[in-house]
Amino acid sequence: MTDLEYRQMVEKKYGMPLKDLMYEVCIRSEMDNYEAAEELGVPHATFMEWRAAFHLGPYHSDTMKNLPISQDPVISAAADESLQYSNEESLRGFEELSRQMLALAKQHHDKMKKTDASPLDRVNIVLWESVLYCLDNYKDGTLQKQYKELKKKMK
Question: Whole-structure pTM over 0.85, yes or no?
Answer without folding.
Answer: no
